[in-house]
Amino acid sequence: xxxxxxxxxxxxxxxxQETELFEKYSGKYILICGDETLAPxxxxxxxxxxxxxxxxxxxxxxxxxxxxxxxxxxxxxxAFG
Length: 81
Prior knowledge:
The protein is α+β, with helices and mostly antiparallel strands.
């Protein structure tokens, strides 16, 4: 079994801290990986650049701080041709 951070754990952590994070970072993006929460970011791309530089792909979550985020939507830049 791997101790690698998971996206599900990161989203659960976001939900646990949602009120506090929203008060601090409303309308901004945050990055969560394991026990680390990095914020604020003005754009998803800014957060992604930091996430790619610091963490393994698939281990970090980028989340817009907005109330009631009950579902996490994942985006990919993969193209099939």
